[in-house]
Amino acid sequence: MTAATPAPDLAIESRGLTKRFGEQIAVNEIDLAVPRGAVFGFLGPNGSGKTTSIRMLLGLTQASSGQISVLGQSMPDSLHAVLPRVGALVEGPAFYPFLSGAANLRRLDTADRNAPSSTRGARVEQALARVGLTHAAGKKVAAYSLGMKQRLGIANALLQPRELLVLDEPTNGLDPQGTREVRSLVRSLAAEGTTVFVSSHLLAEVEQMCTHAAVMSGGNLVAQGTLADLRHVGQTRVRVRTPDAAAAAAVLTGLGLAPVHSDVPEQDPWVAAPLPREMSVDLTGQPESIVTALVAGGVRVRGFLIEESSLEERFVALTGEGFDVLQ
Amino acid sequence: MSSNSVASSKVSGNGVPSRRRSAGPALLGSELTVLFRRRRTWAMLVAIALIPILLAVAVRLSSETLAPGEGPPFLDRVTQNGLFVAFTAMIVAIPLFLPLTIGVVAGDTIAGEAGQGTLRYLLVAPAGRLRLLLVKYAGVAVFCLAATLTLAVAGTLIGAALFPVGPVTLLSGDVISVPESLLRSGLISLYVTVSLLGFAAIGLFISTLTDVPVGAMAATVVVSVVVQILDVLPQLSWLDPWLFSHYWLGFADLLRQPMDLGSFGDNVLLQLGYIAVFGTLAYGRFSTKDILS
Ligand SMILES: Nc1ncnc2c1ncn2[C@@H]1O[C@H](COP(=O)(O)OP(=O)(O)OP(=O)(O)O)[C@@H](O)[C@H]1O
Ligand SMILES: [Mg+2]
Q: Which residue windows are transmembrane per the record (chain B) (predicted)?
C-alpha cells in the first residue's frame, strides 16, 4: 500500500454531489468538506439547495450522482452505522400532534434500535431540559407554539450523545431569547467535541456561532472555508466622511486609489476607495498617511474608516443582490 | 437551554458503549401506542361496536318476527338466541365497514407519517426502512384483530343483554354449548382477521405511493369496493378464487359440526400470496423512495 497522504479528518465530505428534480438541478456537483469539531455554517438564500443537500447527506433522498461520506463512512451504504451517531433537524420540526412533547421524543427514540430503553426516560428528560421545555413536557404538541416545536425538534437531535449534529435552520421561529440560547447551546456542544453543521440564510447568525462556512447559490457551492478565509477574500476599503467629496476624490486618485463617492442629500457625503493589496506607497500599513494627504489637500475630514469587507458584502457578492428566488 | 454538562455526562457516559441491538419490539410497542392513543382509532372502534348494538336494538324493538331466511343471514335466529347477534354483525360489517376502517389505518401507515413530516425523523433515527414497514404492517394487523374482536365482544354482550342465551343450533343442525359457541366466536374473529390481511397489505403498498394520507385511504377503500364488485359479476367468476375478498364471508364454515377448515386453509394461502406480492411491492417502492416530505 502506498503511504496515503493523511486525509484531513472530515465529519462530512461530498464529491460532485448532485440532485436533479426532473430538468431542474437543485444541487450541482458540490464538494463539501466539514472538518471534525467545526461549527460549520451552511449559508444560502431560499431555494439554493441547502435542505436538499442535507436530505442527501442523511440518506433520506438518493443523490443523482456523487459520493458522500459522513463520519468517515460512505452514505447511504453505511446508514445504519452512521445515523445513530448523528442528530438531525431537517426542514423544520415534525411531530405527532396528539402526543405530548415527551411522548413524541420517546416515540422517536424507540425508532433507533441502538437506543438503550433503560435510559430512555432519563435521556428524554435531559433533552427537554436542555432546550428549556421541562415545563411543557406533558403538553400535547398540538398546543405547542412554533418556537416550542422548534425547541422540541432540537431536543430530538440531542436524545443521545452525538458526534455530529445537522441542524437545518434551527433558529427558525424562535424568539430572541431562544435564538441566543440555541447559539450558546451550539457553542457548548461544540466545546464538548460535537461537530455541528448548521444551515441558515441568516448571515449574522452564522457569523456569531460558526468557525467555518460554505455558501450556496442556485444549487452551486460558491465559497467554503474558515470564516476568516471567507472574510479575507474581500477587499479592505478606506472610507472618508467629508463635505468636500470632490476634493477628497481627487486626493485619493492622486494616491493611486480608485474612489467612488456618494452624496445622498441631508447626509454627510462620503468617499470610499478599495485598498489594493500591493501599492507603491505602503498605504495599508499606514493608513493615517492618507489622512495627512487629505488634510494637506484642504479636505475637511469628518470621519475616516478602514473597513474590512464584511461577510455580508461577500455573501451578497456571491449570491447576488436580487430578491427573486433563483430556481 | 442551559448546557447542564454535569447531568448530561451522567447519561452520556454509559450511553454509548451499550450498543445492544435488542429493542426490536420497542418500535412495535411505540407504534401501537401511537395507533391506540389516537382519538380516530377509538372513534372507529366505537363505530364498529355500534353495528351489533344497533342491530340488536332494532330487532328487539320491532314487533314483527322475521321468517326464516329473511334479512341478513342469522338475523332470524337472533330473537331465539342472543349469541347470533355477533355472527350477524360480522356479516353486515365485513363488506363495507371493516374495509373502510382498515383502509383508513392501512392507508395512513406511511403516507400519514410522510404527510406529517415524522417519517423523515423516524428514518434518520434510524428506524430502517424495512423494519419500519414491518412494524407498520404489524400495527395494521393488530388493528384488524381489534376491529373483529370489538365486533364479536360487543355483539355477544348486547345479544346476551337483550335476548335469551342458550346452546346454539348450528347450520348443520347440531347443537353446541354456550362456552363452545363463545370459542367459535373467537375463532371466527381470527378467521375474519386473517381474511383481511391481504387487503391490509394492499393498503400498505398504496400508502408508500403518496405523501397524502387521505388519498391513500380513499384509494385503498376503492380497491375493496371494486374487488367486491368483481366478485359478484358472473362473467368474471373464474377470477373469484383469486380475489382477496373471496373468503370474507366464508366464516360460516366454522359454524358447522365438525368444523370445515378446508376453506380456512385456502384463505390463509390466498392471503399469504397477497401479503407476499404487495409486501414486496411496498418494500420495493419504499426502500428507494426519496423522502421529500
Ligand atoms: N420535492 C421537490 N420537487 C422538485 N423540486 C424541489 C423539491 N424539493 C426542492 N426542490 C427544489 O430544489 C431547490 C432547492 O430547494 P431546497 O429546499 O434545498 O432549498 P433551501 O436552500 O433549503 O431553501 P430554504 O432556505 O427556503 O429552506 C429549489 O429550487 C426547490 O424548488
Ligand atoms: Mg431549507
A: 42-63, 83-106, 137-163, 183-205, 212-230, 268-286
User: Which pLDDT does position A233 carry in this prediction?
Assistant: 64
Give the alpha-carbon dihedral of A107, A110, A111, A115, to 10 degrees. 140
More confident residue, A325 or A25: A25
Lowest mean pLDDT across A27-31, A143-147, B22-26: B22-26
| Domain A235-308 belongs in CATH node 1.10.287.110 | no
Cα separation of A214 and A221, whole Å? 7
Answer whether A83 sits within 8 Å of B126, measured CB to CB: yes
Nearest CB to B21: which of A93, A96, A113? Answer: A113
CB atoms under 10 Å from CB of A240, counted, come to 26
Report how far residue A42's alpha carbon sits from residue A62's, in angstroms, rounded to the nearest whole number. Answer: 20
Please say whether the beta carbons of B125 and A111 come within 8 A: yes
Q: Where are the domains of chain B?
A: 2-287
- Report the SS3 class of residue B18: coil
Architecture of A2-231 per CATH? 3-Layer(aba) Sandwich (3.40)
From B22, B34, B120, residue closest to A107, measured CB to CB: B34
User: B188 and B254 in contact (C-beta within 8 Å)?
Assistant: yes
- A313 close to A234: Cβ distance less than 8 angstroms: yes
Residue B21 has pLDDT above 70, yes or no: no
> Does the interface ipTM go beyond 0.90?
no
| Single-letter residue type at B251 | F
- What residues does each domain of chain A span? 2-231, 235-308
**B25: contact with A, CB 8 A cutoff:** no
